[in-house]
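Protein 1 of 2
SEQ + STRUCT:
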Amino acid sequence: MASRAISDADILAQSPAARARNAEDRKHGRRATSARYDRRAERIVLELTNGYLFAFPVRAIPELRGATPSQCAAVTVNRGGNALRWDAMDIDVSVAGLLLSAVGAAERRKDVARMLGKATSANKAAASRANGAKGGRPKTAAATRSRGVLLPREMRG
């Protein structure tokens, strides 16, 4: 797939939205202001932009499992606050990825579904209007079955 060159005008047009997303991430603590290695607990401690502290065990990052305490202590936060860096070992870790890894897979799926549900498009609006004209969103087989309605054999679970 050929990549398309981005013009200066495209970059300038996208900059306000990127700045807004960055400000939102900072407001909600999805950026780090500092990171340090806690030798006694063998974990990295991050201070987030919303004032919260987040710590994770070094063993949670496969690339760090064989690292010495002095190598772990060499952690830095990149300029944007969205990644941790260990220069000597050439390791970069996303702050957002670390935060997401702290919650279970089911919670991550719920968050993704919630974000996707907020997405709007002309096709989604048209489908919603068409469903509304038919009496609303179609009922699922499980919802229909729970009301005591006998379903056709091909719809039974």
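Protein 2 of 2
SEQ + STRUCT:
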Amino acid sequence: MTKLVITGPESCGKTTLAGGLCTAWPGAYVPEVAREYLGVLDRPYRESDLLAIAKAQLDLEDAMAAWPGQTHVVCDTDLITLRIWGAEKYGRCDPWIAVQTEQRPYDHWLLCSPEGIAWEPDPLRENPGDRERLFQRHIALLDSLGKPYTVLLGDRQARLDLALAIARKVEQDRNR
């Protein structure tokens, strides 16, 4: 099974890209659990919520990957984003999340740059002026973990075209 992750800072076109990629390269789509979780929370979120979100994200990913006949999975985020989020918001990352980011296997990360993508306000977004710095944190973490990734730049169509080419190449390499 080929597993791709779409990651990056807020409002960089991750969800749009994930949907487009799943249309062009049909497979299981794993949405971002944090959005639903925080959307129904009746209080401000706490650090402990990040761990609950992380566990729910992986449970959903595992459930989607287990569907019979599934050959590939597209994840609209992974725990790398939660690891960065915890460090940004609380000055640390939950140890369980850190271990998962090091050990959980994926074939490739598609890292969405904020360049060329306008900020779209959303009640769940917190960093409208800080996307480039957070993008650099993603690069630094992916590099430090030795994860294979590609930075996606350009307009939405250029990003989708590159993501699709990478998905097909990763799948081809995996099937050799």
